[in-house]
């Protein structure tokens, strides 16, 4: 059984230690709140019997921390401190988790390279402006690296080898200030499964190779990308591609060729106006959900089968004309808040079992997804209703 103990307002230089009592099989999470020192050697806590395998320092004036290699510490969490410096002695084989949040760090401590057993490193909400991946490249067990909410505007990889990053599975660099992405920075991360680059200021994605044989999730959402190509990508295992809230005017080039396993395409809140681009996706045989809501599509004539597509989201597009000649059986389509004024349900194949047209000028919605005995033709007995201007006001965003 685990439990947490909090120690408040303790001064390790002046106050005496005290005994932390627990059962022999219990694990303790020890948290220091307002630890009264600016410079902390973790060995001092161990000498006073005030160090647990999981130790947290929170809301304290600590500016400098020194971690000797011999310290038996598995998880170190430091948050809400004016921390400026962390020094880790060479050959540290104990620490497996390092979390630093809400600090004054201006760069990644160079001695993180000494953490030979670390599995996870989080350095978030700091003032870091650039990253050299070489600092982390030779950590043999590192699986998760999180650098969100910094001021990172430049990525570097000063020296690389194909054996670097042997176990890195998740990389988070969201909510920073990157303006361009060069995927060669990730070329030796062969084990990478998830890459998050959302909420930066990315305008340009370089036409560089993305070699991610194991990559399953790629997030470039909430940036300012206008054009991009995936022609040089090797992402045969990618399942989820998030590019929503950008400024794309066309689907990325070669998208339909480089992502054979993709299930989910998140492309809402862009500037697409060519409904014909959707037909390009017919070769994506495993695509299940396509989200192109909140774009500028005015017409869609879907006459090419996307074999596994279950849900097509077109809501909040100024779409005036819709026809679906062929579709996977069981497809649901959402064109809510469109601009359709004239519509014939016969122009949509009976394979479409749900069509949401709420808040369009003309609403001919139907939905047979909940029927135990689905009607042979979901369009049967559809009644179209004209909506007034007041109803359309609901769609304003």
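Q: What amino acid sequence fits the structure above?
A:
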């Amino acid at each position: 059984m685990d439990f947490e103990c909090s120690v408040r307002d303790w001064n390790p230089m002046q106050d005496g230690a005290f005994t932390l009592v627990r059962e022999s099989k219990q694990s303790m999470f020890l948290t220091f709140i307002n630890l009264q020192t600016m410079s902390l050697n973790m060995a001092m806590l161990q000498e006073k019997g005030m160090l647990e395998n999981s130790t947290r320092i929170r809301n304290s004036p600590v500016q400098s921390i020194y971690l000797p290699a011999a310290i038996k510490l598995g998880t170190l969490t430091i948050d809400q401190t004016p921390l400026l410096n962390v020094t880790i002695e060479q050959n540290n084989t104990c620490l497996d988790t390092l979390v630093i949040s809400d600090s004054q760090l201006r760069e990644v401590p160079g001695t993180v390279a000494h953490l030979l057993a670390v599995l996870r490193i989080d350095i978030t909400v700091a003032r870091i402006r650039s990253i050299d991946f070489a600092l982390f490249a030779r950590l043999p067990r590192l699986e998760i690296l999180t650098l969100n909410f910094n001021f990172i505007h430049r990525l570097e990889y000063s020296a690389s080898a194909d054996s670097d990053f042997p176990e890195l599975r998740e990389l988070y660099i969201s909510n920073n200030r990157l303006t361009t992405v060069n995927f060669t920075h990730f070329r030796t991360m062969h084990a990478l499964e998830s890459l998050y680059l959302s909420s930066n200021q990315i305008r340009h994605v370089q036409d560089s190779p993305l070699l991610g044989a194991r990559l399953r999730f790629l997030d470039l959402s909430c940036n300012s990308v206008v054009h991009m190509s995936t022609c040089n990508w090797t992402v045969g295992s990618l399942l989820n591609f998030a590019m929503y809230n950008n400024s794309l005017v066309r689907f990325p080039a070669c998208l339909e060729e480089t992502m054979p396993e993709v299930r989910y395409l998140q492309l809402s809140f862009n500037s697409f106006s060519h409904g014909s681009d959707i037909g390009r996706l017919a070769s994506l045989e495993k695509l299940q959900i396509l989200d192109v809501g909140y774009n500028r599509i005015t017409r869609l004539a879907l006459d090419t089968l996307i074999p596994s597509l279950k849900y097509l989201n077109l809501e909040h597009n100024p779409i005036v004309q819709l026809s679906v000649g062929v579709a996977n059986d069981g497809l649901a389509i959402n064109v809510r808040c469109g601009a359709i004024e004239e519509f014939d349900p016969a122009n949509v194949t009976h394979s479409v079992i749900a069509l949401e047209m709420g808040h369009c000028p003309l609403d001919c919605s139907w939905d047979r997804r909940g029927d135990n005995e689905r009607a042979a033709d979901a369009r049967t007995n559809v009644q179209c209703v004209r909506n007034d201007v007041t109803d359309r006001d609901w769609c304003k965003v």
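Q: And what stands out in the fold?
A: The longest strand covers residues 2-8.
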